[in-house]
Fold these 2 entries.
Entry 1:
Amino acid sequence: MLRFRNTLTGELEPFIPLEEGRVRIYACGPTVWNFAHIGNFKTFVFYDVLRRYLRFRGFEVTEVMNVTDVDDRIIEQTIELKLSLEELTTKYLNYFLEDMATLNIEQPEVMPKATEHIPEMVALVETLLANGKAYEADGSIYFKISAFDGYGRLSGKKLEGNEAGRSGRVDTQEYAKADTSDFVLWKAPKLEGERSWDTAIGTGRPGWHLECSAMSMKYLGETFDIHAGGEDLIFPHHENEIAQSEGATGKPFARYWLHSKFLNIENQKMSKRFGNFKTPRDLLSQGIEPMAIRYLLLSAPYRTQLNFTADGLDAAASSLDRLRNFVRRIRNAHVTSNGESPASAVAKRMLEGIPGRDGRRPEHVGRACGGVQPRERREPDDRCEVDHRGGPGCDPVGDRSG
RNA sequence: GGCGGCGUAGCCAAGUGGCAAGGCGGAGGUCUGCAAAACCUCUAUUCAUCGGUUCGAAUCCGAUCGCCGCCUCCA
């Protein structure tokens, strides 16, 4: 039985999809205002391993990953660079897709853009206005948290304990909200030249969380299986998604919430804001091969924080070389005494190892494909045993040559 | 101030009650004209600290110290 650590409950829960044999996943995707850095890709590689592993386990996977192509940073950039929204976001979306391919990340089944789902978002806001969970103020529309029971369930936050603006990251005086904890659904334009849409709920653009609710429900249904994202999104993003989605439908939103921990560098999270980030392109230009980056990002389980270092990257590259050597040796090896080919003997052991394994620590999906090692010294007569954590369907390091 | 996570060898890291996986690095060796590569062997009596529970604890409980993350548009 596959189990996941569900942020919603904090428990390790057996995974039972809504529909047998099929998994519906919504994964929070990139905001295409600039290059994505390898911290971002830690999460995207996690999604990739998750979908590959689920498929390996026999599930049909439908993954929706949004492309946020309108938000504050994008708007600021378009004004600064005198580009249209489409020019800027198309450019960086293309770079992102290239980077995904470089790191051998499979493309999700659906990659919807926020700007192409304005009508769906407007409809959602209209529902919330109609049932009293949203209100208008100064041309913007806000979600009324006091009208939604269960706010804070995902993040475990109690509003009393929180201090508005404590993170120092946001301007809490920016909006005319009735309650500081309310969040914006629809934003009236503020800047000169800011992109906006004329709609039935007014002129403006969607708030951060709205696209994820509208698009996940459109492509996956009002209730779906897995919602994944970086740990930073637990609050407020995912908390607010739940509020506005369940506030509108009255039905449970996502059933399993999976959050990946951050990539740190010099013991601080990698972030554009801190200027301490590296992009895959930066590393490639230093002669680092793409699969070494992927290997490094998978060297800790997805729920474990990973510290990025040059040594770590070197170690990943060395490990990868050794792994490839191992594969080459299997291919060149002779058949075993019972007539089985070495490659199939290895595959069989991997298959046998996995079911017993995930029954215990299934949430280690990020790690599931991390460790294929020869164990020749333990069993000299059978030189092809492989650590059970690898899996053939898993393609451990996503290396096509392997 | 509130909430959450983590602390295992020089470095990265697995392990959630029954003698401490693995990788990198390092040391020694085999092969090789030399070198490199490859391959082989070795590399934690001990799991931040202190108490407790137990026949048995890295694993469970309590306290302490240290680090990290979130606290309203960050993957």
Entry 2:
Amino acid sequence: MAARPRAPVPDKRRIILDAAVKVFARQGFTQCRVADIADEAGVAYGLVYHYFRSKDAVLDTLFLERWEVMVEVIGQVDQQDLPAREKLRYVAGFIDDSYRHDPDLMKVIIVEVTRAANSFGRTHMPDIQRAYGRLATIVEGGMRTGEFRTAVTPAFAAMAFYGVIEQVLTQWIFAEGPIGDEEFDRAKDLIVETVCGGLNG
Amino acid sequence: MAARPRAPVPDKRRIILDAAVKVFARQGFTQCRVADIADEAGVAYGLVYHYFRSKDAVLDTLFLERWEVMVEVIGQVDQQDLPAREKLRYVAGFIDDSYRHDPDLMKVIIVEVTRAANSFGRTHMPDIQRAYGRLATIVEGGMRTGEFRTAVTPAFAAMAFYGVIEQVLTQWIFAEGPIGDEEFDRAKDLIVETVCGGLNG
Amino acid sequence: MAARPRAPVPDKRRIILDAAVKVFARQGFTQCRVADIADEAGVAYGLVYHYFRSKDAVLDTLFLERWEVMVEVIGQVDQQDLPAREKLRYVAGFIDDSYRHDPDLMKVIIVEVTRAANSFGRTHMPDIQRAYGRLATIVEGGMRTGEFRTAVTPAFAAMAFYGVIEQVLTQWIFAEGPIGDEEFDRAKDLIVETVCGGLNG
Amino acid sequence: MAARPRAPVPDKRRIILDAAVKVFARQGFTQCRVADIADEAGVAYGLVYHYFRSKDAVLDTLFLERWEVMVEVIGQVDQQDLPAREKLRYVAGFIDDSYRHDPDLMKVIIVEVTRAANSFGRTHMPDIQRAYGRLATIVEGGMRTGEFRTAVTPAFAAMAFYGVIEQVLTQWIFAEGPIGDEEFDRAKDLIVETVCGGLNG
DNA sequence: AATGAATGAGTCTTCATTCAT
DNA sequence: AATGAATGAAGACTCATTCAT
């Protein structure tokens, strides 16, 4: 009798990571105890330590899993034959969609890592800088083709671009209710319009 | 012999606040113990609690002292008869100078409050929103006079503007050595040029 | 012009003692801080320490002031030419009236001293025993004249008599509302009736 | 070789409770630190908090464990077909034996709970009142059959009876040396003789 | 792999007491 | 006498991590 294909049972490690996202998002990394992760995952306390060296390692794993994808995406977009503005729009859209698809994970990454200057933000500085660097490369390309002005340096422009995106996500994170699809769609355009078009236009 | 005028002796409460800025900047709020503040201030442990209800209250006080000044400044700038772009430049310059003058304090405010979504950032949300609101009013004025395009809402523009500034300060905070005067001076222009001029120009 | 007689202004020391009774009764000795006493008295913090060596000394003073009167009364009653039962009734009445007249003070004495075996009860054991001794002397007299049976020792009888009184006061202390005059009046009789008459009668 | 039967190894929770009795009795609840309990039990500090929510919870547990047995016993005695006086004697004997068997535990219950009006006494008032109520029921039965006079109310008699017992235990608690068996035996009779027989007899 | 009991370092806060004025 | 700032010891509680099964 042929076994029917079924959704793969996620292994315990994955279950723990997913549970960690939930509790980190809900309570914050510091406020959450390892026991909360285990409870949310429905596994024994000690199993968290079987799969991860420490509580920190759980967050490190979550962050890197997603961040490396993002850095990779930024790199690949830059390979495409597109106007620089379209490349930035694609990046903004990717991050925007990441939040739309898994707001808890993005909340954790933003709040607990990229904005946490005294803890994980410092640890992962090289990773974060890598993303900045790739964004700067995109801007640089736009300047080389004459699409972008050279009033600011590529590095500054990249930083500003990321700063605007992070601020948008932060707004959503603080928002009470869920964000509507129209708002997600509009955000992509507003971000690019602000950074590329400027207020004076 | 005539007594030379001397700087007024700061009271103990002030000494404690100033010491707290130093240790919060150096070690981070969480990593610093109340004993560190007392030691840095050269006062007895208990005196911190004589003047402040809790460790949290020390940070609250530091934040509000400076933040209210900033909100006030933004409001007053908007009263001036100036192009909106000049108003934004003034605000950027004020924050920039705040960092130049007292980097430790600004570091604490940015890192421990405005970017700390799960702790003081949440507590002081109303204060932070008040600043956003005043920035939005400046942008709105610019749009009303036709100086600014209306491609994005005033609120979005204010948020983006603040996001860029915060990101610049964050860079400085992470930087190893001290920031040079030229960099401070240039930053004001770059921020405004980015948000107002845009990359496309 | 002749000065009119006026109520004597209580000195600060007295004011502090009276305030202490209030706050000890309200919050309990341990739960009340020295600052609470000073606040209630309307004097400066340090003045409490000008008049009293320590917080403990305040309670010691309050206790002894009243307790010595009581011991004295028990002694004097025993000098009278009265049946032993009447003597006991007088003592019960005196304590009963003490509570009626100043429930806060009696509450403090009972709760914080005579029933506090691990703190002031131990310190003032000799004082408390002195009262027991005088009660025993009364009982002993009753036995010598044949008024009382000798089924129990005078010491045991004294202890029982005091135990019943303390339990009655404890009930009042725990009671929500104020105690009515009839209850005070009846209590004196019930106490004596119980200890002298017995349940079998 | 046949394994000799051995006493079951008490679990750590029990060990902690027993250690707490010792140190509470020796130093008093307030004077004892949680570390003292852990040391006496020979376990790590944190284990106390693994089993109990707080230091208070340890005492609550100790009190209730024993008090509920006592309340139960009083209720069961009343079911027996005995003269009321015999019932009271049985209750006095049970409490007396409780002290004889485990003076530390009884000391803790009396000193730290039933006589501690401002702390645990208040918390456990309902439990204490439940015991009073059952004693009153016994007295009431004695009055209904005519065995007891109705000069005082059952509630008052119950309170007096308990007051005398508590005072006896308090004497023992304060006593320097150990109490002899004869004194324990005699106490049962003296208590009942005092409350039932009365001094006048 | 899985469990959860056991460990113990770390720190905020309280508050009685002292002291300079 | 009167004030209140200054001192610092003490202790409950948390929780990441380890470890024996």
